[in-house]
Amino acid sequence: MPARPEPQPATAENAHILVVDDDARLRGLLARYLAEHGFRVTTAENAAEAREKLGFLKPDLVVLDVMMPGESGLSLVESLHRNRPRRIPVLLLTARGAPDDRVAGFEAGADDYLPKPFDPRELVLRMRALLRRTAPLAPPTGPVPLGAAVFDPERGTLTTQGGTIRLTGGEAALLAALARQPNEVLSREEIAAALGMDEASERAIDVQVTRLRRKIESDPREPRFLHTVRGRGYVLKPGN
Prior knowledge:
The protein contains eight helices and eleven strands. The chain is α/β, with parallel strands linked by helices. The chain folds into two domains: about 15-135, 3-Layer(aba) Sandwich (Rossmann fold), CATH 3.40.50.2300; about 145-235, Arc Repressor Mutant, subunit A. Strands 2-1-3-4-5 form a five-stranded parallel beta sheet, sandwiched between helices. Helix 6 packs across helix 8 (about 200-215). The longest helix has 15 residues, at about 200-215. It is globular and about 55 Å long.
């Protein structure tokens, strides 16, 4: 009997997507459109159904409406990163596209944000970029010491003697990108390119840096490891 082939890892072309939106018409349109573009799609009409399906499914990406009856999308994305050992990248959809709303989404743990109404072609492009960005990265050699914490770039984990500090997919990807070139200043444009992001997402990098500092720095206002170089970008300086 021939050996069963090993399952292939998900790519930006065949990934499994969980679409969560209370609008049945939009949900159906997205499911058909994404399937036509090679994605495997599961849908849920609210956060409760999404939680139920996440109990037995392992999607590669969640496309999540923010404003839904009952639990909001922001609350769901916060709990996804808090309670699940495997990070799932999240792209938020919302009718509220003001800068403060986008920042709230990133603060909650989302990896990208698309205001409604949107062109489905842009959604697909953003999804593929996000899947590439959060795919396993070629790690730097060995663990990266950050004071009392150690970052494992292969696993994307940050640990201390007290346990694991949870990182979102975007935070882990950012830290790995910076750790590849320690003590070298990377511009926002270079970081965006390394993470598969477009230039419009540079504000998201600033938000991710702020959140990451809260997790690796004892005093985020006076960082030891993740420094801002005014007018140039960011630099990671590992050390004990």
